[in-house]
Write a structure and sequence with these properties.
- By secondary structure, the chain is of the alpha+beta class.
- It has a domain of 111 residues.
- Helices cover 38% and strands 14% of the residues.
- Strands 1-2-3-4 form a four-stranded antiparallel β-sheet.
- A hairpin with a 2-residue loop joins strand 2 and strand 3.
- It is globular.
- The N and C termini lie close together (11 Å).
- 15% of the residues are buried.
């Protein structure tokens, strides 16, 4: 593995892909994609797995090139007007292992020219999971307040009105309106590429 698990060439390749987001360019440059993006990032997943398992042995860090922690570069363009076929970022998802049909929080790492961040939590959970999170906040408001003081960002979309079944006058109503429960931190490309 190279000295840096995230090579600077990754950001150069993704910047070029942003300017030439078509199949012809990508196919001509696929060997570069494999060498500069995919393969180093799969090695990164393998290298970071023990550190993630030290946080929790239930965190899944899967280095498979398809279906693993590294997300696909191909975009699903079926239901969007934007038909660009490729993502211009590399993303990872490291979920907590859970039973079948059970939602669980996880960690996400996003690498894109000019936008590098890490996040954790539950992003757009199902309505049942969302209700359970909100009920946990109501049950333990002190715990939620301590978690919010972590210094990490909490920028998420929120409902305009209080969710059904929750007191509109609750002191944490603005938090109860949230539709995702994540925290995150931004980094520079240089920080992402440092060993």
């Amino acid at each position: 593995m190279p000295a840096s698990p995230v090579p600077p060439a990754l950001f150069r390749f993704l910047g070029e892909l942003r300017r030439h987001n078509d199949r012809e360019w990508f196919n001509a440059n696929k060997p570069r994609y494999l060498a500069e993006v995919r393969d180093p990032l799969l090695a990164f997943v393998t290298a970071i797995a023990p550190k993630l398992h030290a946080i929790s042995p239930r965190i899944v860090a899967d280095p498979r090139p398809s279906g693993g922690s590294l997300l696909r570069i191909y975009r699903d363009t079926r239901f969007t007007a934007d038909k660009k076929p490729y993502k211009t970022n590399a993303g990872f998802f490291f979920p907590l292992a859970a039973g079948k049909d059970v939602e669980a929080p996880g960690y996400y790492l996003h690498l894109e020219p000019g936008q590098v961040f890490m996040a954790g939590g539950m992003w757009h959970p199902s309505s049942d999971a969302l209700r359970a999170i909100r009920e946990a906040i109501v049950k333990d408001p002190r715990g939620w307040t301590r978690a919010k003081r972590s210094g990490l960002s909490h920028d998420e979309a929120a409902l305009k009105r209080p969710p059904r079944g929750f007191d509109p006058q609750h002191p944490l109503i603005e938090d109860l309106k949230r539709t995702s429960f994540t925290v995150g931190e931004t980094f520079t490309e240089k920080q992402a590429c440092s060993a």
